Amino acid sequence: MGRSRTIRLKIIGLLLVPLASMVVLWGVITAVTASESLELRQYKTLWTNLRHPADQLTAELQRERLASVKLLRGKSTAVVQELAAQRARTDAADERFRQLSARSMHTSEAIRTQVDVVLTQVQRLDAIRGDIDTGLSGRLQVIEAYNAITDALFGLHKRVAFIDDIPLYEQSRVVIDLGYARELLSREQAIAAGPTTAAERRLFTQLVGNRRFLIDQALGELDPGLREVQVSLVTSPGYQRLRLMEDQIIAGGAPRSWLSASEAFSTSFQDAQTQAGALLTERAEPVADAVLWRAFLLAGTCFVLVIVSIAFSLRMGTRLSKELGALREAALEVATKRLPQVVEKLRRGETVEMPELSVATTTAEIGDVGQAFSTVQQTAVEAAVGQAQLRDGVGHVFRNLARRSQTLLHRQRIQLEDMQHRATDPDALDDLFRLDHLTTRMRRHAEGLIILSGATPGRGWSKPVPMLDVARGASAEVEDYQRVIVEPMPAQRLAGPVVGDVIHLIAELIENATVYSPPHTPVQVRGEVTARGFAFEVEDRGLGIGAEELAGLNERLASPPEFDLADSDRLGLFVVSRLAARHDIRVTLRGSPYGGTTAIVLIPAEHVSDPPAEPEERPKEPVRPMRVVQGE
Fold it and tell me: Taking the model in full, what pTM does it have?
């Protein structure tokens, strides 16, 4: 092996001679093409700092306009709360727009002027809101006040869209027109949120005509890459239904599903607009690259000047490139293949062997980096082995403790049942029923430990069980079972092998609903047949869950994570996700109309059977009926 040299020395030797020649080359081409190229590349920056936050602010203003009109149509606690929440979101979008626009508003005098116009209009929000709260403004006045702000924002869109590339500018202008068409649809929503007056219908008719004209005109001007998504929207059944509702409103009607239908189409329209904007931003970069490519062609005149430098740097550059490429490939192999495979094998309990990472190089730093990667690889494997052993040991502890508890609880239930049969005193019988209920809950917690350990609980049934009995059995396993209302359900049945797990799953959801809702509120359990099986709904009337947290919980329920010992507050969530994954059951959380949370459990059709045509002997219920006992 040759004498090792530092990478710094090699880079200096590689660049020293070409640098002097390249200075002359870049001095020639920079003055010619720098301004045009930078302007094209600035398009993406303007999109990020101006158009995108302006679009977000517009969307929030549209929602606030609709919520304000709802308040003027009928004041209620729910409407007032909805408007207050929306105003907070609008203020947040306004603050974000101010922060981002400050970075790019001085790009040109025209953009700075238009941003000032937008900020001036947005400052009127406090006065507009005050008139709304005091009842000094009518519905049309409020709508026009918000319209002035959104018009200023669309003026900013048009100003930012100016670019020297004519095809790109034309398509950007058409996309902005489509965005304004969506704004007109939002104005329609606000006007027709309830019964309309003659003046409101006249304005509604004008908005409908203008929006339809903008869409029809824009579709003819879009290129094929942008037209396809827009055409699929305007030819969809939802859009045709929207047009029919518009005609009904123009004729004096008030379709009940107008808001939901228009909101659904508006959301799809917004997604299409976002996609189109992103596509135009991507197109700007190749245009800028083309300008740079033309600049490189101009550098051909300097070819003779740099040919000597290229010949000198070729040998050293090739060698260094190969060494760095080999190191890169080795590092990527470790990061993307070796370590993930090792971790997966360790999770399965297999033995692993990790070969040492070696990179052939004459550069000291590259050799050191290769050795460091090898050390990191070994350390990561050792950590993964330790973690796997710890996880397996914890699982064994959980499983052993739970199995012992199950045995004791089973014996305890047998004794309690015998005592209940022999008891004659009503008070003593009530106490025995309470103890029986506590034993049932303790059994479920023991099963939870078994599930967290990766094993399968032993509880199961040989015959299908009616869904109503499954729901009743789950409600009997929670502490506040008196608050649980199990509504009548279809006579479909659940396959015996999955009954125990489904009872446990629903019981965890019911208990969570009782814990996180006021003690005086009921928890309702419903069930119905769906196209893909059978769905249980567990609804509480608590304080609900925030949108971000709700999305995180649904993600964890859809993809069960590894059990984290530090996250002991989420044991029920781990158990539910494990049980759902075991039987391909889908569990989804969403907001409840009562302000709480609704858990939906979709059981696949393969586990559901229809009731028998002939009446048969009623199967044993999954949980012995529990006598209702009054609390102390």
Answer: 0.43
